[in-house]
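Entry 14. Ran structure prediction on the chain below.
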Amino acid sequence: MRLRRNLFALFATLVLAMAGCGDDATDRLNTTVHTFADALNKGDASAAAAVTTDPAQASDTLGKLFDSLGKNTHFEVSAVDHKDNDATFSLTATWKFGKDGRNQWTYTTTGSAGQNGDKWNIQWNPSTVAPGLGTGPLSYSALTPDPAARVLDRTGAELLTQQIATLVNVSAGADVNAVAALLNPLDTGITAASLQTQLNAANGQPVTAVTLRAEDLAPIKDQLSAMPNVTLAPQTRLLTTDKALTSPTLSGLSDLWQRATDDATGWAVSPKAADGVQRVGGQDPKPVADIASTLDIGMSRTAEDALATISTPAAMVVIQPSTGDLLAVGQNAAADAQGPIALTGLYPPGSTFKTVTVSAALQAGQVTADSVVACPGSENIEGRQIPNDDNFDLGQVPLHTAFARSCNTTMGRLAVNLPPDGLTKAAAQLGLGIDYTAPGMTTVTGTVPVADTAALRVEEGIGQGTVTATPFGMALAAATLARGSVPAPSIVVGQPGKPDRAPDPLPAGVDDQVKSMMRETITNGTATALQDIPGLLGKTGTAEYIDNTHAHGWFVGIDGDLALAVFISAAGSSGPAVEAAGRFLRAQR
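Output, structure tokens:
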């Protein structure tokens, strides 16, 4: 009986010992598999390879995989089973690609492990890490929609399309004289000296001399290709069909196109196999629709031509009052160098702001269009000496005459008698000071702060002081007067802009009184140079900045169902803006 108890105790001890050995093996196996997965999560090819049966090959394959697909990945061990010295396990992996990791590739693989003594190793098999990896190196590629979307003008003509643009890259040792000789006729800013300066600053790195459209590259492509240390790098870009219309003002449409294209773009993960490329993961691209803009190519080209000869930054915005559609946004080369100033450049509006001042005064009941007002050549109003242009003196005249002749003294006196927020509210009724969110464009209208002192109201009443406006904002103000209410501005058909707040509506009849004064500005005021254009309404503006020796020039006008604003920086007077408006408007007839 005693011997039997001893044998039973010995058997139990052996069973427990064997069970203990089994638990240790399982723990070591789990540790190995999780070490492998954790190393993959960190993108550490060496650490992952170290627990495999072929560290050298695994390290090489995994290093190339991470170089190709990136390291935005997560591996999770989903199951581990083993029997004796062999084991299997499953991994669930997710890779993230593209902008913000929007494209995700998720899959599950199986692998095996073997025990050699008290050590477990992952049996190296590339397919354990990713499907297709055993066939060849994997690569990620975006699959863009085909056909690509186009941006069309209001007539259906192509405004922006996807085209090939080629970067001309120059490296140290290139013959800069020969390169400049070929490129200078296309861009006069490219010279041998300018290229050498770029190369010197690049510390041995190549520099991009210019980016060329296909039609510009074609005549010189072979010559450039044959030059040592010159390489051509073609890229796909969204470009205007007419390169004369290239402008930063179109960047909003380009951004809208890019977002639509990104949302529709598919993707693929493919191994480079001997029998071709076969996709192991991905998504087909979605169809993408063209973007119908409100812009008119012909009108836009005319606007650009009207400004082209002006040496200082100049911009023009044309809006259709009945719809709020932007018909044309033009800038000259000097303006393009500063950005989309037509839509976002803030400047003192000068006398064009008198449309707001008379609107506020009419609403306040101070005057009517026929009220007789004083227009002295100069007047000290609340400590601010206000002169008329060249100190002209009209004496006592009707308000409509003072407006048409642009009497600063009259407007300063009207503004003083307004409440502090009078001009702010009247401006908002015309769209100024309101921000609009519209697909395809980024805009600013202007700023008209509350004037809590009489001196500030004097300044604001003549469009100076803290008042600012953009060409877009003044075109919108003109469109509001033409329509009688603020139109929702848009640059994409059917997608009107939304205001950040809703101002009070313009009272009935105020618009007609202001428009009557604007008509007199053309027939017998400061814009008689445009009196040959039938029915035109307008207001000129000269806005001082820095000191009284520097001034911007403005013109705002209404021609039927067209409202426009012209701005010319450092013009000295409104004359150049009036002339540019005339060139544009006459070309429309």
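The first strand starts at residue 73 and ends at 83. Will compare against last week's run tomorrow.
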